[in-house]
Amino acid sequence: MFIMLPKYDILTDEQIQTIHDNTMRILQEVGVEFSYEPAIEIFRKHGQKVDGHRVYFDREFVEEMVEGAPSEFTLHARNPEHNLICGGNNTIFMPGYGAPFIHDVDGNRRNATIQDYDNFVKLAGASKNLHMTGGNVVEPQDVPDETRHMSMMYSHITNSDKCFMGSASGYEKAKDSIEITALLHGGLDVIKENPALVCLVNSVTPLKFDDRMLGGLMAYAEAGQATIIASLVMSGSTGPATIAGALSVQNAEVLAGITLGQCINPGTPVIYGSTSAITDMASGALAIGNPECALFISASAQLARFYGVPSRGGGGLTDSKIVDAQSGYESMMTLFAASATGINFVLHSAGILQYYMAMSFEKFMQDDEIAGMVSRYIKGIDMTEDKLAFDVISKVGPGGHYLTQKHTRKNFKVEFYKPSLSDRQSYDGWANNKLTANQRGNQKWQDVVENYVSPVLDPDVKQKIDEYIAKRSKELL
Amino acid sequence: MFIMLPKYDILTDEQIQTIHDNTMRILQEVGVEFSYEPAIEIFRKHGQKVDGHRVYFDREFVEEMVEGAPSEFTLHARNPEHNLICGGNNTIFMPGYGAPFIHDVDGNRRNATIQDYDNFVKLAGASKNLHMTGGNVVEPQDVPDETRHMSMMYSHITNSDKCFMGSASGYEKAKDSIEITALLHGGLDVIKENPALVCLVNSVTPLKFDDRMLGGLMAYAEAGQATIIASLVMSGSTGPATIAGALSVQNAEVLAGITLGQCINPGTPVIYGSTSAITDMASGALAIGNPECALFISASAQLARFYGVPSRGGGGLTDSKIVDAQSGYESMMTLFAASATGINFVLHSAGILQYYMAMSFEKFMQDDEIAGMVSRYIKGIDMTEDKLAFDVISKVGPGGHYLTQKHTRKNFKVEFYKPSLSDRQSYDGWANNKLTANQRGNQKWQDVVENYVSPVLDPDVKQKIDEYIAKRSKELL
C-alpha cells in the first residue's frame, strides 16, 4: 500500500541535523556496550575504539556504513502476489508482536495459546488492510519455550501465504527460522538473493545490545535476511525525560546496530526501528498510546529517510485494557501518525492492548478498520478530470441532487472506503441491540476465523518443513 | 494554542491551483443561487451577471474580494486572558454545535434541555483544552424557539468568560446576538472595533444560500463581527461522489459567501468553513467519521491558506451512537487531521455523536482528552540544548537509568501531556472495577460540573442584558 500524499515531515532539516549531531557525539564520546564477543571483534577489526564491552564510534565510519544500507528491498512471500516492497512510499501493516496475554471481550485476562496464534494469523491472512501475518503475534504459553519459535513460524507458513517474520532470539533460533524459510522458498541461496524473512532486533536501552539479539542480528545479516534494528527508549526512565534527548539515545542505538549489520554483510537489508515512548511517571510503567509516542514515530520516519533506510514504527498502540474509546483514539493517533509521516513497516498495527502486554481479537478488528481508514487517507485526492466532475456539477446545478447520476454510481465505490466495523445506522437502527464496536468486533472475528480457508501448501514442501521441525525438536527438547 | 510543527500540506501547489480553476469555472458558468433579494441587489451593483436568483461570478471579481478579507483577527472575550487570535498558526477548540438530542452513558436518547446547555458550557469553561464555550451547543427543546437564541447566549455569558458564538438564524436573531454582545462589551462601536462574536452561516448545498443565513451574514458583516461561511457537501448526494468534485462545489459556495461578506463590509472578518463529508450510500445518510472527511478537512485548511483567510473544519466527528472504540478512532482521526493540517477554528471539537444529531457528556470528556493529546502533538519537539540532554546521557551512560536524575524531574511535566481520562494502570489495577473510558467519563463530567464556579459578571452589565432579553422576549413571544 502506498502513501500518495506528500509525507508529513514534522522536523525541519535543521532539526534533523541537530539530532544527528547530538547522536554522533553520543556514539563518539559515550559509546555503546555490546555483550557479544563476535560483535566487539568486528568493531575492533574496523578500527573502532573498544574498551571492555564499550565501543566508541568514529562519526565518519558510522556515516559510511549507514550510507551503504539499501534504501528499499523486496520481501518475498511464497505467493508472489504478496511480495512487499519495504521502503520508499510503501506502508506495510501487520499484527502485534510478543504479548503473553489475551484479553477477552469482557476484559478478562488469560495466557495466550497456539490456537490463539493460529487465529490471529488467519485474521491477518484474511484482512484486506494487513499485508503480512507478522511474527510472534502472541507468546503461546502451551508450547515449549525451546521450540516455540518453530511452532510460531509453522503457523504462518501453513495458515497463510503472506510474508511473515522469524525469530531473532539468539543465533540458533535465528538459524532455524532461516532454514525453515529456505525450505519454503527453495534454498538458502534463493532467499539470500530474494530476502523472505525479517526479524526484530531490540537494543537494551540505554545504549546496550545483548548476546541474544546480537546473535540473531548476525545470523540474519549473514543469510542476507532483513533485520529491524529497534530501540524502545522509555523517556523518563531508560532515557531522558525529553523527546529530543530520548530520540538521540534511540538514534545512537539504531545507528550502532545498522553499522554492525553492514559490517557483517555490506548491503544487507536493515530497517530503522523505533518504539520509543514515555514512562508513566506515577507508576514507572511504559505508556505508548500518547502524543509523545506519536512524535517519536513521526520523527523516526524522517530520521530513517535522512539515513536512506526503510523505517519501522507505530502501530495501533494503546494503554487501555479493553476495546473502548481509549483504545480507539490512542490507536488511531499512533497509526495515523505512522502512516502520514511515511513509516514503512508497521509492526503492532493490529491487536495490541495494555502497552504490548496483551492481544485481543476484538482489538484486532478495531485496528483492522483503523488500518483501512488511514490507508484511504494516505491515498489522497484523485484530481483527474473525471474526478473534478465539472460536467456533472454543471448538469445538476444549484439545488439539485447527485444520487441518481451515473457519475455517482461510477465513482463512490472507488472514492469511499467501505467500513467493516463502524456503525453508520440511524439511532433507531442502532438501538435495536445497542452494540458497541467491542461487541461487534467479537462477533466479527469469530465469523472471519470460521470462514477462513488456508491457502494450499505444496505437500512436498510441507513434508520437508515437518521433518526439519521434528528433527530439531528432538535435539532441543 | 499554536501549531509549532510545520503544517501538513496534503495537496501540491498544482493540485490547489486545479481546484481553484475548477471552482472559478463553476462560479462563472454554473453560478450560485441566492434567495435573499438584498444579496442579489449587492451582486448586481457590483456588476455581476444575475438571472433570477442565480448569480454568475467574474473570476477577477471573486479573487479581488477574497483577497480583501483579513488573514487573521482577534476575537475578544470579556476576560481578555481568553482573547483568541483566529488565523495563522492558531488552533481554537470548542464544543459541538446544533444537536437536538442527548445520548446518555448507556446509549439512551432524550431531547436536550437548557440544563444540558448550561452543563456543556460549564465543561467547556472548565476545560484546559477548549478555548471557547462555542455556540448552540445543543438545541434546548424546553425553551421557546422564538427566544432560544437569547437563552443560549445568556448561558455562555453567565457561565463563562471565554469567547462564544451568536445566532445567524436570520437578520433579527443575529441582531439580538450582536446587541447583547455589545451590552457585554460596552457598545456596538466597541465590538465593531474589537470583534467579539462569530456566527455560522451555512450554504444550502449544492450552490445555494437561503434567506435566513444571508440575513445573518448581512447583520454580522454590517456590525463587523466574524462570520464562518461554511459548506457541508455530502459527497454522493448533494455533491459529486468524488472528493475533488465535492471540494470544488464546497469551494465555490464558500468563496461566493466570502465575496458577499466583503461586498457588504470590506475587510470584515470571515472564516473559510468546511464540514463536507460523504453520504452513506446504503442509507443516504450523512457519514462524518471517516477518512474522506479527514481529507476534506485537510484540503480545506490548505485552500483557506491559499486564499489568505482563517479556516474552520474538523472536530471530534463520529457516526457512533455511544462512546466506544468507534467514537474514539473516528474522532481522533478528524481532530488530528484538523490540527496537523492547520485548521484555525475547530467547531465540534467535543461532544458530538451520530453525525451531529446528538451530544453526549461522556463524549465531551473523551474529546477533551483527544484535544489535549493533539495539542501536545502539534507543539512538536523542543530541541534546545537542555532538551537534547547530552550531559545527562553522558552521565547515565550505557545500562543506567534516568528516574532519579534532576534533569528528569525538571522536564517530564513540561514534556509529557498529563492524561485526564486515559487509563495507564496495570491490568490488576484496572481489573478492580474494569471501567471503560465511557464509564470513567460519566463519573468525571459530573465531578467537573459539580465543582465548577462561574466567573463573576458585573451586576450592572448583567442587569442591562437581563432587561434587553426581557424586553425582546415580550416582543417575540
Textual characterization of the structure:
The structure is a homodimer. Chain A is built from 18 helices and 21 strands. Chain A has helices at about 15-30, 35-45, 60-65, 115-125, 150-160, 170-185, 190-195, 210-225, 245-265, 290-305, 325-340, 360-380, 385-390, 390-395, 405-415, 425-430, 435-450, 460-475; strands spanning about 30-35, 50, 55, 70-75, 85, 90-95, 100-105, 110, 130-135, 165, 195-200, 210, 225-230, 235, 270-275, 275-280, 285, 310, 345-350, 350-355, 360. The first copy, chain A, folds into two domains: about 1-10 and about 65-380, Alpha-Beta Barrel (TIM Barrel); about 385-415, no CATH class. Chain A is of the alpha/beta class and about 475 residues long. Chain A has a six-stranded parallel sheet. Helices cover about 50% and strands about 15% of the residues of chain A. At the A-B interface, α1, α9, β16, α10 and α11 of A face α1, α9, β16, α10 and α11 of B. Chains A, B: It comes from Alkalibaculum sporogenes. Chains A, B: It holds the Pfam family MTTB. Chains A, B: One of its GO terms (molecular function) is methyltransferase activity.
Summarize the structure.
2 copies of one chain form a homodimer. Chain A is an alpha/beta fold. Chain A has helices spanning 13-30, 37-45, 59-67, 114-126, 148-159, 170-185, 188-193, 211-223, 243-264, 291-307, 325-340, 361-379, 385-388, 390-396, 406-415, 427-431, 437-451, 459-476, and strands at residues 32-34, 49-51, 54-56, 72-75, 84-87, 92-95, 101-103, 109-111, 132-134, 163-165, 197-202, 208-209, 226-231, 234-235, 270-274, 277-280, 285-287, 311-312, 345-350, 352-353, 358-359.
